[in-house]
Design a protein that fits this description.
The structure is a single chain. The chain is an alpha/beta fold and about 190 residues long. The protein has a single domain, classed as Glycerol-3-phosphate (1)-acyltransferase. About 35% of the residues lie in helices and about 15% in strands. It is built from five helices and six strands; from the N terminus they run E-H-E-H-E-H-E-H-E-E-H. Strand 2, helix 2 and strand 3 form a beta-alpha-beta unit. Helix 3 packs parallel to helix 4 and helix 4 packs across helix 5.
């Protein structure tokens, strides 16, 4: 991951610990977009104290995106879980905010695979078994390619799909490299 300059970390999201684990293991300070519902009680005070950005996931939260854009303009790192909520972590769908920010700021994206924060078959709100291995795999940075011949909304949809495919491929590759799945014909080989 580049040590300086604007960068957007995009990570898969399967378990409650994904955010804290990526935040603590990132090689440089990262400001995450975090669901506004988390900004309550003690945990909310902690999120606020470490400078995280509350986001309303029910709408295209322009205020949160503007704050994240300002972090990028200042040369900082922003973290986003583009799936929007905890899912199985396979990245089958993503929201457009991360791609929008990347295109607007010209910031490269670093795909991040988070593995082991939720065991297969367990619900999204469960914690991993104590002492179970957790992996955070930071991929190679990439700059989204915006096809200028497409109208704005179509360009954003195409960039969002490029981001989704890149992150999904990185997660599959990290699972294979870490022995938590076997490759299939559509997965990259190391």
């Amino acid at each position: 991951m580049p040590a300086h300059g604007p960068i957007i970390l995009v990570a898969n999201h399967a378990g409650f610990l994904d955010g804290p684990v990526v935040f603590s293991l990132a090689p440089r300070p990262v400001t995450f977009l975090v669901k506004q519902e988390a900004f309550t009680g003690f945990f909310g005070r902690v999120l606020d104290a470490v400078g995280q950005i509350p986001i309303d996931r029910t709408v295209g939260d322009r205020t949160a995106l503007a704050v994240a854009g300002a972090v990028l303009e200042g040369g900082g790192a922003v973290g986003i879980f583009p799936e929007g909520t905890r899912r199985d972590g396979d990245v089958e769908q993503v929201n457009q905010g991360a791609a929008w920010l990347a295109l607007r700021a010209g910031a490269p994206i670093v795909p991040v695979a988070v593995l082991g924060t939720r065991l297969p078959g367990r619900s999204a709100g469960t914690w991993p078994v104590p002492l179970s291995p957790i992996t955070v795999d930071f991929g190679e940075p990439l700059t989204l390619e915006a096809d200028r011949s497409l109208p704005g909304r179509d360009r954003l949809r195409a960039a969002t799909e490029q981001l989704r495919v890149t992150l999904a491929d990185h997660v599959r590759s990290a699972r294979w490299e870490n022995g938590s799945s076997s490759p299939t014909t559509d997965e990259r080989t190391p």
